[in-house]
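Lab notebook, bench 4. The sequencing result for the construct came back, and we need a structural model before the next group meeting so we can plan mutations. Quick request posted to the team channel:

Model the 3D structure of this chain.
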Amino acid sequence: MMRWLRSSLPARAGLAVILIAILALASSLSAGLIAWFSQGDAAAINTAGSVRMETYHLSWKLAAGAPREEIAAITDSLQTRLNSHSLKAVLEDGPTTDLQISYGQIQQRWKDDLHPALQRGDASAFQAMALPFVEQLNQFVSLLQRQSEQKQGWQQVIQGLALFTTLIVLLLGLYELQYGVVSPLQELVAATQRFRRGEFQVRVNHQSHDELGQLATSFNAMAETIEESHRTLESQVQQKTLNLQQANAALELLYQSSRSLATRLANAEGLDELIRRFQQRLPGLRCRCACKDTCRHRPSNYSPCTAPTVGMSAPAAIAPRARNTTKPARKPSASATRAANWVSSRPTLSTAIPRKPGKPN
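Done. Here's the predicted structure in token form:
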């Protein structure tokens, strides 16, 4: 049961509502029952008051010398009120209560003292014993009032306990609402807003076994997956950008090299510089110039090397210089570019194009 309550937010909210409803119902039932029991107390107090008034009335009639028929009628009314059900109904708590004792004393005084005096017609004796009888009636009424007040006190205590318990349940519900619902929702909203701004490393710290805890766990898993995908995409974009930069640099170098070879005579130092620039642009490229070795053993009738041997693991083509060195620089033709691409796809390249003396390029 407790495990189910911890794992379900609607279950806890429903339990709080049920507890509040039970407390309200209990308070209403207790108030109704106590009011129902207190109705007998009010009737008994009224009856005891009427008995006291009948005693005063009978004493005044005796003093005034009223006829015996009128005295008998008043006596019967007093006897009926003294034995009424409303007085006996409040005496059901037990024979040893103060109300039972006081009511027994009233009945005993009426039977032993007042009623015999009325039968004898002794007005002076009746008047002398009427005052103690009325005093006992006053004491009986006081006991009835005290009992009624005690019942009202019990009603107030029950209602106070119900109200206090309801307040405790409400405070616990507000605490649970604040720290179990409002705070996690605010944290989730803040995390989603930060995540929308691009902070993919944001996470939700709320941990619980209810629906909001499961939502926070799912959000963290989603954020981690998206962050990993974003990191992978960034690395791929960086790699693609680097490849494009290298390709652009290689094309630029190829263009500049072709332009340089087309406008100037090639020599070993220039080719070494060209190879060094290729190696700087393409770090994985291994190049060597064979011009020095070939030129060292060349015949005397050979002109200076114009197209030396170049060997490389990922080689690039080097175009020969142009015939007319006075022409302005121009971009390589489409055929030269296709030739360069074909040569770059070959694993090795070794080229030596000597020039016969007396024939210009």
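Residues 123-196 form the longest helix (74 residues).
Will bring this to the meeting.
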